[in-house]
Specification:
It is a single chain. By secondary structure, this protein is mainly α. The chain has helices spanning 13-17, 26-37, 59-83. The protein is 49% helix and 0% strand. The longest helix has 25 residues, at 59-83. The radius of gyration is 31 Å and the shape is elongated. The termini are far apart.
Length: 86
Amino acid sequence: MPEQDDDEREFDIRWADRAEHKEPSARARMLAARWKENPPEPQPFRPDPRRVGPRPRSPWRSTALVLGCVAAVILVLGYARFQAPF
């Protein structure tokens, strides 16, 4: 059978999905081999609610900081234009 160019070859996903044997990915094989010798500890689905972490920042704080910087730049530019000789 003559070989086709890569441009002429088309991968048919339906043909691949009908395959009877699907080989696991290299990462899946690596993890299966590693976990056979040393299984991982169970991990909770959600974090422990008793764990105290950093408090999340308020989005209003960031917004106020940005608007304050914009106002300061406008004031500085206005003052510089007011002081500049014509």
